[in-house]
Amino acid sequence: MTDPPPLVLFSPRMKSARAHLISVMLGPLGLPVFSVLTLWAMIRAPVSATDIFPVFIALELLIYVGAGLSWAFGLALLSTAVALAGFFFSPAPWARALFSLYGVLVWALFAILNAFDHRRDITWNRFQEEWDGLELDLSRIQADVENARTVVEDSQTRINAFDRLQLFTDDLVGPYHRDELLQRALSGLGTMFPKSRVSLHLFPKPDVPDPNDELGLKMLQWGQPRLLPDRGSTTPTWEPGLMIGLPVKGRESFLGWISLEAKQASLPFQIHDLRLASIASDLVSLALGNTERYSQTEALAISDELTGVYTRGYFNERLLEEFRKARHNGRPFSLVLLDIDHFKKINDAHGHHIGDEVLRWLARLVMAQARETDFVARYGGEEFVVIMPSTRGDDAFRFTQRLVKTVGSTPFRWGQKSVKVTVSAGVATLSHEVPNEEEMIRRSDEALYAAKKGGRNRVRVYDR
Known about the structure:
Blueprint: H1 12-25, H2 30-44, H3 49-67, H4 69-89, H5 93-172, H6 178-192, E1 196-202, H7 214-222, E2 226-228, E3 243-249, E4 254-262, H8 271-302, H9 312-329, E5 333-340, H10 343-350, H11 352-369, E6 375-380, E7 383-389, H12 393-409, E8 412-414, E9 417-419, E10 423-429, H13 437-453, E11 459-461
Parallel strand pairs: 10-11
Antiparallel strand pairs: 1-4, 2-3, 3-4, 5-7, 5-10, 6-7, 8-9
Helix pairs in contact: 2-4, 3-4, 3-5, 4-5, 5-6, 5-8, 6-8, 10-11
């Protein structure tokens, strides 16, 4: 605790200046000189003691106000010395009485000043204690405010992160295919972690990482997101790190992993970043599972349950799409309509279950002969249809003729029995006279009718 100034109303800077001035006045040279001058004045003219008395009283007060109690005490001792000298050396009795009274008054004044100074010390100490208490309370309040600011900033950061997580979740919802979904996931993770580089590492096969992909092997082993000190490390950490690895998992298998790498070493990932990334990883896995289920559902919706080729409904959509593209690009396309000859006799002779097997067998045979760009669908009953993009009539005719010969020369077998199956086919090719896709179907059906009428097991091309 600091000492109080001579008077509370004086500043420490002013106190220092006054103390320096008083020290010069009452220092080692000042006090003796002042004493000698005083005694000389008293001896030369004792009557002047009445003038010296108020000067000492006033000087006592000024020194106390200017320099404090210790200097006033020094002046009181000096005044006592002067009073004793005057008492012993003054010839006049009234002068000795006056100097005695003067000494008493000086010490009475000093006692009053000492009591005042003691009360002032108590007041100053109380004020200093209260001031220290206020400073302590203020420091605690500042610490609480700083803690509250930190909590608010952290909460705001977490709220912003979960807002981005909500946007990330919304962006993953939809009937996306796997590649599109993974691209959306990478973009969303880049938004959630703007100070990181996001990369996708797909396995060559599900659950089979590249042998050179050490981190991929570790991610498959861990099966959970991990925080790593850096890319070269395979030991997870709970301390701040420069990389987060996220496994990419579908419904039943791991497809790969995603890496998040901090762009700056001074801005590493914290443990709460790992928690947020773990939630994002679970959302990606859930979305991939939904995508797989959607793909399976979509395949079931557009695939014929018996033969596995596309349904007539999906054929209608593709035919309209191909017709519009051909018109827009000025490219030809052909349509082939197939029908099994005497299919009713097969059902009557061998049973409907054998008839179903014949349909499956024919579907596999047509798919094996068709090109990758061709579209094969079951048109209805024992009829199949093939869309052949960018194919002119002659090429479509040769393909269909080869297909008809292959079917006729390949008997259908089950057990020890076999059935000879033949098909008839009609081919129609897009021309300027065809107004719409329905006309394409009508023309191929008319060509098919001509093939059946011509003896079956043959191909006919629509010809007006």
